[in-house]
Input
Amino acid sequence: MAKTDSNKPFNLILKNISRYILLSEEEETIFTSLLSTRLVRRKQFIMQAGEVFSASCFVNSGCLRAYNIDKNGTEHILQFAPPGWWIGDFYSSITGRPGILFIDAIDESEIVVLTKENRDILFDKIPKFERFFRILIENSMASQQERILDKLSLTAEERFEKFCLKYPALVSCLPQKYIASYIGVTPEFFSKMRARMTKN
Output
C-alpha cells in the first residue's frame, strides 16, 4: 500500500508493526492520529530514574540508550535503540511506579511517541494492537533474560561478539565506553580485549 506524504514521519513505525499485525488503511489512519514526533538533542533525556514513564517510544533516526547508575556512579547500559527500535521503561509503564532507568540520546534523534492515554484509546479502537504490544513486551523480557544468562555464562569476548550480531550498525560508531558498559567490562579492559581480538 502506498503511503501518503502525511504519513512519512510514521513510515518506519508502520513497517515495524506490519511484521506482527496487518492494518487496514483506516486503522493506519487511526493509529498515526494518536502518535506525535519529538526531536531529542544529543545527551538530552527522555526520562530519568525516579520518574513515572508510561509512554512507548519508537526511534525514527539517531540512537538512544537506556541505562542505570549504581551507587558508585557507574553506568550500566541495558539497551541501545537505533532506528527501527522501541525503547522505554516497561516496569514503570506496566506498574505505574517510578522507573529506575535513564534514557537519553547518543546522537540527535527523532522519536515517535505514543502516550499511555493514547495507547489505551488505540487498544479500544483497534484491539489487535494489544497483541502487538504483548509481543513487544515478551520479546523485551526474553532479551533481558538472555542478557542475564550471558553475563553469567559467557566470556567478555563472547558477549562482545553477540553485541556485534545484535547491533551491527553501531559497532563502529559508538564510543568504546558505551560498548564496554553494555557488555559489563571497564573501558580499559575493553580496549585491551578488542586490540587482542583484532590482532588474533
